[in-house]
Write a structure and sequence with these properties.
The chain is mainly β. The protein has 2 domains: about 45 residues, Seminal Fluid Protein  PDC-109 (Domain B); about 280 residues, no CATH class. It has 1 helix and 16 strands. A hairpin with a 2-residue loop joins β15 and β16. The chain is rod-shaped, with a radius of gyration of 30 Å.
Length: about 350
């Protein structure tokens, strides 16, 4: 009888076959009665592939574990706009669980993401009476059930700064006060009041930041908070600096923006995607004819960090980028609103 020899490559080469290799299949009761070491089969009772170990005389399941969908987040709202010849905008609300308790989510579930737009500055910059109007609050930023409140708009001579994630800077007169953030838990600090600083020609108070109140130093905006969720340490949510008089004969004081994207006093905008407050407007001509509006607040940002075994689906209405950091993925959302999902 002729013998045909089957070489090993021909026997085991499945490279051109897009089907599957099928193991012997059966229930637990149908296991072989005298199995040898290393025998494998698919157990339809347990739903697992199993193999036999003669050393322990036992069938072992080839198990697998799904890595939980554990998500860390940073949600920063947009900064408030600066007041006309007045206070700096408050920083956007700052919320994060990075370094704390992670959030456990589900696959194939819709989660809302919204990036707040920066608050508009005061509508006008009037002369002589120093009243350029109040800045608008920044827009809220959202991820799932986490909402960070937009920063408070900066005030002017007839209005105090607004409440917000961080409070807007107060008007320059002694009657003005910084505002306590209106959110619970607190997402930022109070705006400042220029009268607290005793500075000559300082017109507006600094907006509050995530970690520091406005006017802690002069009429500067309060500093923001640092976060390393992206793999690099970045500071977010600085308050806008208060306005000053640039036309006076004595030294003038224009507040500096707080670290984390806060703008200095004048028509300067908070840095985009930091939640920085806009700078307060300034009086720029000693003959009382020229003024500056405040600056717009910086837009917010949402950053998510999750296991790299998962894939995120982002709709076209959201602007986002994804990077790999160690064993995780980090997705940064910089504009828009929409619903995202995760999948394995």
């Amino acid at each position: 009888m002729a013998i045909t020899k089957i070489e090993v490559p021909e026997l085991f080469d499945f490279g051109s076959d897009n089907s599957a290799f099928k193991l012997p299949t059966g229930t637990t009761a149908e296991r072989p009665t005298s199995p040898s070491n290393g025998e494998m089969r698919f157990n339809t009772t347990t739903g697992f592939v199993e193999y036999y170990d003669t050393t322990n005389a036992q069938w072992w399941e080839i198990d697998y574990a799904i890595i939980p969908l554990i998500v860390d987040y940073l949600v920063v709202a947009a900064g408030g706009g600066g007041g006309g010849i007045g206070g700096g905008g408050g920083a956007g609300g700052y919320r994060t669980n990075y370094g704390g308790t992670s959030l456990v989510l589900n696959v194939s579930t819709n989660y809302t993401v919204t990036i707040g737009a920066g608050g508009a500055p005061s509508a006008t910059g009037a002369a002589w009476n120093y009243d350029g109007g109040i800045g608008a609050n920044g827009g809220d930023s959202v991820f799932s059930t986490i909402t960070s409140a937009g920063g408070g708009g900066g005030g002017s001579s007839s209005t105090v700064g607004k409440n917000g994630g961080s409070g807007g800077g107060a008007r320059f007169s002694s009657a003005g006060f910084g505002n306590i953030p209106s959110t619970t838990p607190s997402q930022g600090k109070n705006g400042g009041n220029t009268s607290d600083s005793g500075l000559s020609n300082a017109i507006g108070g600094g907006g509050g930041g995530a970690s520091q109140a406005g006017c802690t130093v002069g009429n500067n905006g309060g500093n923001g908070s640092a976060n390393s969720i992206t793999g690099s340490t970045v500071t977010y949510a600085g308050g806008g600096g208060g306005g000053g008089n640039t036309g006076g004969s004595t030294p003038y004081h224009i507040g500096l923006g707080g670290t984390g994207g806060g703008a200095s006093g004048g028509a300067y905008a908070g840095t985009v995607n930091t939640g920085g407050g806009g700078g307060g407007g300034t009086w720029t001509n000693n003959s009382n004819t020229t003024t500056q509006r405040g600056g717009a607040g910086g837009s917010g940002v949402v950053i998510l960090r999750y296991p790299s075994s998962y894939t995120i689906t982002v709709p076209g209405a959201l602007t986002a980028t994804t990077a790999t950091v160690g064993t995780d993925k980090v997705t940064t959302f910089t504009a828009g609103t929409g619903t995202i999902t995760f999948s394995l």
